[in-house]
Design a protein that fits this description.
Blueprint: E1 7-8, E2 19-25, E3 30-34, E4 40-44, E5 47-54
Antiparallel strand pairs: 1-5, 2-5, 3-4
């Protein structure tokens, strides 16, 4: 399975690795806030995570063309 495909939540890393999570929400009210450590969280009430995938690689720095 490719690293960039959705995988079952049961296979998600449990070592603190940051991942993208897909969740099914019974109530479609989104919540978004910034945590004190600078992390951004977007969540849903009554959301149930079903799948995950690794974070993509960050974009390469672009060359400035002045």
């Amino acid at each position: 399975m490719s690293e960039q495909q959705w995988q079952p939540i049961a296979t998600a890393p449990k070592d603190g690795t940051k991942i993208i999570v897909l969740a099914l929400a019974a109530l479609r009210v989104s919540v978004s806030w910034w945590l004190p450590n600078g992390a951004h969280f977007v969540g849903f009430y009554d959301a149930v995570p079903t799948h995950w995938m690794p974070l993509p690689a960050p974009p390469a720095p672009r060359e400035e063309t002045w």
